[in-house]
Design brief:
- The chain has 15 helices and no strands.
- The protein is globular and about 45 Å long.
- With 264 residues, it is an all-alpha fold.
- Helix 7 packs across helix 8, helix 11 crosses helix 12 and helix 12 packs antiparallel against helix 13.
- The protein is 60% helix and 0% strand.
Length: 264
């Protein structure tokens, strides 16, 4: 989950000013956390406390109303939309990573990922994007190889992962759908060498950079089982204290970097 939050912060400043390179400063004064972080922590809090996903999404969203939510989600926050609104957007995928850490079977991860999506993103593609992200985190933390993760994702969700970043990058632009951003985010992880390069790869595609770095970073943390302390501490500087407390509580309860093994 921490990998998702850091990815969001790093990718935040490129959403309106995309780059097509992996060479950039990770942190500047223009970085910030966005709705990706807020809603990831809402899901984490629900997992920790056994609370309703939808209720915590509303609570956290209203506590941090200027984090960059989409227009329809803002109407949902305000109660103007009472139930799910059929979204296929990548908002379901950006917030789901805690599920990949907290549940201990493929069936339970898939079920809980769907539950996190349903309050807003009940379109089949919205649910699929959340499930594909959560199960990628789960398989990565369990020590599955990149080839095994890719094989499962392609067979289960029909995402095409047989593409290369260099080919995608040429014509890729801002895209908020799960079906056209989640696979690309997973490929960014697949071509990485470590946590940092996974996030850099995602940003370099020039799309919805905060969300794609959030997704790619979430999987990379679980796979490489390491985020450099310097990166973590710099990211914490952008977060309110209560966010850091939730992250550390979740990490202490669920995150075991010794589980499985991964050589990278």
């Amino acid at each position: 989950m921490l990998g998702a939050v850091i990815g969001d912060i790093i990718g935040s400043r490129f959403e309106a000013n995309p780059v097509k390179t992996t060479e950039f400063d990770l942190f500047t004064r223009n970085n910030s956390f966005t709705d990706d972080t807020v809603l990831t922590l809402a899901i984490a809090c629900s997992v920790l406390r056994g609370e309703d996903y939808g209720e915590n999404l509303r609570f956290f969203g209203n506590e941090y109303p200027y984090a960059g939510y989409g227009g329809t989600f803002m109407r949902w926050l305000a109660g103007m939309i009472k139930g799910p609104y059929g979204s296929w957007g990548n908002g379901s995928a950006m917030r789901v990573s805690p599920v990949g850490w907290a549940f201990d079977s493929i069936s339970n991860v898939l079920k809980e990922a769907e539950k996190t999506a349903i309050p807003t993103h009940d379109h089949p593609e919205g649910i699929k994007g959340a499930q594909a992200t959560a199960i990628s985190v789960f398989l990565a933390r369990k020590g599955y190889s990149k080839n095994e993760i890719a094989d499962y994702i392609q067979k289960t969700f029909q995402y095409d992962l047989n593409r290369k970043l260099n080919d995608i990058r040429k014509n890729y632009s801002f895209e908020v759908s799960c079906q056209h951003s989640v696979p690309e985010s997973i490929i960014a992880f697949m071509e990485s060498d470590n946590y940092e390069s996974s996030v850099r790869n995602a940003v370099s595609l020039g799309g919805d950079t905060d969300t794609m770095a959030c997704i790619s970073g979430a999987i990379a943390e679980a796979y490489y089982k390491n985020i450099p302390e310097e990166i973590t501490q710099k990211a914490y500087d952008f977060l309110p204290g209560e966010f850091v407390e939730i992250i550390e509580e979740f990490h202490n309860k669920y995150v075991n970097y010794q589980e499985g093994s991964s050589s990278g």
